[in-house]
């Protein structure tokens, strides 16, 4: 019974040893040059933060989120594709095929929805009132 805990215990000991080794190496290799200005406590709230240096397009987040959603959903097709041959041999060919096609249809409808809303365009046209 106690042998079941051997592997997790060994991995825990190895992990703690690795962390201790890294802390020891940091203490050994890090530069040790404290000077007066470095040791003075500062009030970070009194200093004004610097202005951002680059203008970042906010639409990137929307396109990145759409990409992540579709990429994760397509990753769900892989397990079905991996066992598809086994399902064909066991006589569940139409079930597996319909499952994949329904899933891809849902993805396609989502892509059409995003496309119709023009969320895939990097530069959106703003209507001008005359």
Structural notes for this entry:
Helix 4 (77-89) packs antiparallel against helix 5 (93-116). The protein starts with 5 loop residues before the first helix and ends in a 14-residue tail after the last helix. It has helices at residues 6-29, 36-39, 59-75, 77-89, 93-116. It is flat. The chain has 130 residues and is mainly alpha-helical. The model has no long low-confidence stretch (mean pLDDT 81).
Question: Can you tag this structure with a few keywords?
Answer:
130 residues; mainly alpha
Count the beta strands. 0
Main β sheet profile: none
Query: For the residues shown, what is the average pLDDT?
Result: 81
State the secondary-structure class: mainly alpha
- In which range does the helix fraction lie? 55-70%
Low-confidence stretches: none
Cα separation of the termini: 81 Å
What is the helix tally?
Answer: 5
Shape: flat
Furnish the topology, listing elements before pairings:
Layout: H1 6-29, H2 36-39, H3 59-75, H4 77-89, H5 93-116
Helix pairs in contact: 4-5
State the gist of this model.
This protein has helices spanning 6-29, 36-39, 59-75, 77-89, 93-116. By secondary structure, the chain is mainly alpha-helical.
